[in-house]
Specification:
Elements lengths: L1 H28 L2 H11 L5 H34 L2 H18 L3 H6 L3 H22 L6 H25 L10 H35 L2 H19 L2 H17 L1 H37 L4 H9 L1 H21 L2 H26 L1 H28 L8
Helix pairs in contact: 1-3, 1-4, 1-8, 1-9, 2-8, 2-10, 3-4, 3-8, 4-7, 6-7, 8-9, 8-14, 8-15, 9-12, 10-11, 10-13, 11-12, 11-13, 12-15, 13-15, 14-15
Length: 389
């Protein structure tokens, strides 16, 4: 719909600014969605004072990181947009990154109370979508679109922070700056994982924007959003089972693997079934949206293997290695895969455009899958290697 109303050029501006915002969010997350969730899951029954100190420290870390990331992003947005309305849209969309980064999903995951914040987050997205549906009519409404994307996440983050404060879980006077440095050190491997995830999943729009005009970027970004909407349906399942697997690995390795074998089906079955359905109904759905350019269908269908590979890597990396506390091993694999993805993208995109981006993404996920499978097999076999330390 946005492609039709904003036209590919206007949608390309929104897509590029959203990609930059995602990188702000990735830097602010710093892997705390993994490390902090694991800590809270293990210490959920600890005294409130202990949780308050930890939650306050992590929240302060994320606030500092989102400030640093936003300062870095400003010149990037300005140089790309050249100022004007496109730059203002980018500034507004940074609000979505701030809101998402400061929403303490990691805490609610750890204490198995994700439902409330998940409902609030979903409701905020629906509010933004409805506002866009009702009020966006032409490319001149681009700034309204940016506000619709950014204001709801900011309100959710504010509401969650106030809720934690009222519950005595977050207090400004409980922030320990020395503890902040320590948590940054502990979270470093998981930051590499988080950054690697961003490279594997979100660099396509930026790399394509380097070589092609915004009209081409808009077509690719629209098709990619369809696929990522399907992937987003799997995220709540992953968030729900991760604390359970982390708790089981805390008991024993064998208990952890038994838990993963059971919960993996909850992730893999919907992914395979959903991907098959998307592949089959894509032409019909694109017809309803009046997306007539054949590139839309090619990108969506070529990205279908990426969905399945991504879920497999979620099981291997998040549900196994991260739940085991093997963050450094996971980070090394992600670093190699992310570099491979960028090399493939920059090599293939000049000649193949959006299809080259897709092949780079699929190739990166496949490389990551091989590395994770080898890592887990070697750990289980008891191979003593510096790679796993």
């Amino acid at each position: 719909m946005l492609v039709t109303r904003l036209q590919p050029q206007g949608f390309g501006v929104i897509a590029f600014a959203q990609a930059v915002s995602i990188y702000i969010q990735l830097l602010a997350d710093y892997g705390f969605s993994i490390s902090a969730t694991r800590y809270v899951a293990i210490h959920a029954s600890s005294p409130t004072a202990k949780l308050r100190d930890y939650v306050s420290t992590i929240h302060a870390c994320k606030g500092l990181l989102v400030l640093i990331a936003s300062i870095i992003a400003l010149p990037i947005l300005y140089l790309w947009s050249g100022g004007g309305e496109a730059f203002v849209a980018g500034l507004l969309l940074m609000g979505s990154a701030v809101g998402n980064a400061l929403t303490p999903l990691w805490y609610y995951q750890g204490v198995n109370r994700i439902r409330t914040v998940a409902v609030a987050t979903a409701a905020s997205k629906w509010v933004g979508a409805v506002a866009i549906l009702l009020f966006v009519r032409a490319p001149t409404d681009m700034l309204f679109v940016a506000c619709a994307y950014s204001v709801p996440p900011l309100l959710v983050a504010l509401a969650c922070t106030i809720s934690l404060d009222c519950a005595g879980i977050f207090k400004f006077n409980a922030i320990d700056f020395r503890a902040m440095r320590n948590e940054m050190r502990i979270g470093a491997p998981y930051f590499l994982i988080s950054a690697g995830t961003g490279v594997l999943a979100n660099s396509g729009v930026i790399v394509l924007g380097i070589f092609y005009p915004t009209s081409v970027v808009g077509i690719y970004a629209a098709a990619e959003k369809v696929v990522k909407a399907a992937v987003g349906c799997i995220a709540p399942i992953s968030q729900s089972v991760y604390p359970l697997n982390a708790e089981r690995f805390g008991e024993s390795t064998s208990a952890g693997f038994r838990s993963v074998r059971q919960t993996a089906l909850w992730l893999l079955c919907p992914a395979v079934a959903g991907t098959a359905i998307l592949f089959l109904i894509a032409p019909w759905g694109l017809g309803l949206l009046h997306w007539v350019d054949p590139l839309y269908l090619r990108i969506i269908r070529y990205l279908c293997p990426w969905i399945v590979l991504g879920v497999i890597n979620n099981v291997l990396g998040i549900q196994v290695l991260s739940a085991m506390g093997r963050g450094k091993t996971y980070a090394r694999a992600f670093f190699i895969a992310a570099c491979s993805t960028l090399i493939l993208m920059f090599s293939l995109t000049p000649a193949w455009g959006g299809v080259g981006i897709v092949f780079g993404m699929v190739g990166g996920e496949f490389i990551l899958m091989i590395l994770l499978m080898w890592s887990i097999r070697s750990i289980v076999s008891g191979i003593d290697s510096q790679w796993f330390k």
